[in-house]
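User: I'm designing a mutation panel for GDP-mannose 4,6-dehydratase and want to avoid disrupting the core. Could you give me a predicted structure to guide residue selection? Please restate the sequence first so the numbering is unambiguous.

Assistant: Good idea. Sequence first, for numbering, then the predicted structure tokens:
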Amino acid sequence: MSKKALITGVTGQDGSYLAEFLLEKGYEVHGMVRRSSTEKRERIDHLESNPNFHVHYGDLSDSMSIMRLVGMIKPDEIYNLAAQSHVGVSFDVPEYTADVVATGVLRVLEAVRLCGLEKTCRIYQASTSELYGKVEEVPQRETTPFHPYSPYAVAKQYGYWIVKEYREAYNMFCCSGILFNHESERRGETFVTRKISLAAARIAQGKQDKLYLGNLSSLRDWGYAKDYVECMWLILQHEKPEDFVIATGVQHSVREFCEYAFREAGIELEFQGEGMDEVGIDKATGKVVIEVSKEFYRPTDVVNLWGDPTKAKTELGWNPTKTTFEELVKIMVKHDMELVAKEN
């Protein structure tokens, strides 16, 4: 009998890569999607014809739908990846973010417990480096104190602690993967890395004049989402339930990401000025192609995320730098150069 997995948020970047990964492993994969008037499933369209892949409607804000799916599928593994996952947007919709990102985790755990699967079903919770927020230690590891700095991060902290509570109170195999920033060509276009790779392609092809960004000095630990889903799976194959930092251990600024991305698109950048007055200039033309906008600064901004993946490397045998930062940027820009070339 093949293992059965339920993935919430299967249409997202991580969900689509994880579904591919598990299908290759011989799993029967069930994906939960929210009903909306426009069915955006381009990330999983190619999987729909696979007889081992099944899509179901459900919502993390609706405990009955989760209970129904868990009871019907009886999964061996659940990967809770669904969320309102945009940090900036969480300031605009804090209540909805709390309901889905915090209470949604509780609904999944309770569904497993009430369906009598607490001894057979392993649960992975997608946690986040945003828990560290206003960082108290560099780099951040499993023992670093949390200091969440956005409504999204505060909601994720509840998710982290409720997973730990169910693990200890009910002896359930449930774990959190504290993922640092992970990107890919499937990243949503409102996220800064994809915004940069698309803008680089559009500016290089004369279809956009400028890119507007927030704090160019923000530091992040960026990895490739396709590599990170393997670590999610490894966490649930581990002999005991534990939480792990998933990161590369290498840090870059938003400015550096811009430099690499624009170079891949054929534009050498030079940065001048500081803070709000900093600009990125195309060396060849002298034209300003990047400007800083106050609009993209947050009420509280996290500026220094840098993970220590030692535990995942030593205990799980995971390779965090299978895809380097430079290779990640190259993959994203190559994809977007081809995508932009097809635009009208």
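For picking mutation sites, this is relevant: The domain at 4-179 is CATH 3.40.50.720 (Rossmann fold). The CA atoms of residues 47 and 257 lie 31 Å apart.
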